[in-house]
Amino acid sequence: MNALGRHILAEVHGCDSEILNDHAAVEQIMVSAALKAGAEVREVAFHKFSPQGVSGVVVISESHLAVHTWPEHGYAAVDVFTCGDTVNPWDACNYIVEQFRAQNFSASETLRGVLVENSNQKAAV
Amino acid sequence: MNALGRHILAEVHGCDSEILNDHAAVEQIMVSAALKAGAEVREVAFHKFSPQGVSGVVVISESHLAVHTWPEHGYAAVDVFTCGDTVNPWDACNYIVEQFRAQNFSASETLRGVLVENSNQKAAV
């Protein structure tokens, strides 16, 4: 089975609430995660909410990373979606979990854009 | 069971390849999808790839919408993640599918940030 991409949804718990509420820190961690995994950063868009919480996305050549934080719960919803074979999304995910000082996390990987051979042509199904 | 958010991953197939390769059209469709679902748009970041394909994200107060297109396969990977009760992510998802003129799609919804009552406090687990 061939897929265009791999998409990790991570539920990250017991994080440092001060980090989760720090716009600059969250943005830096997400961009660094992309770079450390070998991705090429294309666009960065983050937003700080009042009274608390940060949302943001890093668009990479290989797809995107996204985060939404709830400092009051010590919780972050993290996505890492990569296409191609050069970037391992788990490298980025594990880095984020570590940098948020999470006590625990659960994550699942979903294949995106699974390709099947159909006579002489390849199509996404 | 209480959750902070709902996250739809949609595999959208048989789309109009010209639309999928049109940076402005894809961006407009994604922003319109957010607005039509009643979301508040905070940040928009899109990128056109060479020779083809568009990636982009709309950060909303209620989380985000993301898209990655492969015009050569008529395929788009679409995410709609919303928190709170005011926005129905399926409204945005169905609008995008329609606007991409998709022949078919499959989608799954995942709950994010499931909360459990733990003695006198509520925590994300």
UniProtKB/TrEMBL annotation, chains A, B:
It holds the Pfam family AdoMet_dc. The active site is at 63 (schiff-base intermediate with substrate), 68 (proton acceptor), 83 (proton donor). GO terms for cellular component: cytosol. HAMAP family: AdoMetDC_1. Catalyzes the decarboxylation of S-adenosylmethionine to S-adenosylmethioninamine (dcAdoMet), the propylamine donor required for the synthesis of the polyamines spermine and spermidine from the diamine putrescine. Belongs to the prokaryotic AdoMetDC family. Type 1 subfamily. Pathway: Amine and polyamine biosynthesis; S-adenosylmethioninamine biosynthesis; S-adenosylmethioninamine from S-adenosyl-L-methionine: step 1/1. The record marks 62-63 as: Cleavage (non-hydrolytic). GO terms for molecular function: adenosylmethionine decarboxylase activity. Its EC number is 4.1.1.50. Signal peptide: none annotated. InterPro entries: AdoMetDC_C, AdoMetDC_fam_prok, AdoMetDC_N, S-AdoMet_deCO2ase_core, S-AdoMet_deCOase_pro-enz. It is an enzyme of class 4 (lyase). One of its GO terms (biological process) is spermidine biosynthetic process. It comes from the Bacteria. The gene is speH. It catalyses: S-adenosyl-L-methionine + H(+) = S-adenosyl 3-(methylsulfanyl)propylamine + CO2. It comes from Sulfobacillus harzensis. Keywords: Autocatalytic cleavage, Decarboxylase, Lyase, Polyamine biosynthesis, Pyruvate, S-adenosyl-L-methionine, Schiff base, Spermidine biosynthesis, Zymogen. Is synthesized initially as an inactive proenzyme. Formation of the active enzyme involves a self-maturation process in which the active site pyruvoyl group is generated from an internal serine residue via an autocatalytic post-translational modification. Two non-identical subunits are generated from the proenzyme in this reaction, and the pyruvate is formed at the N-terminus of the alpha chain, which is derived from the carboxyl end of the proenzyme. Its cofactor is pyruvate. Heterotetramer of two alpha and two beta chains arranged as a dimer of alpha/beta heterodimers. This is S-adenosylmethionine decarboxylase proenzyme. The modification Pyruvic acid (Ser) is found at residue 63.
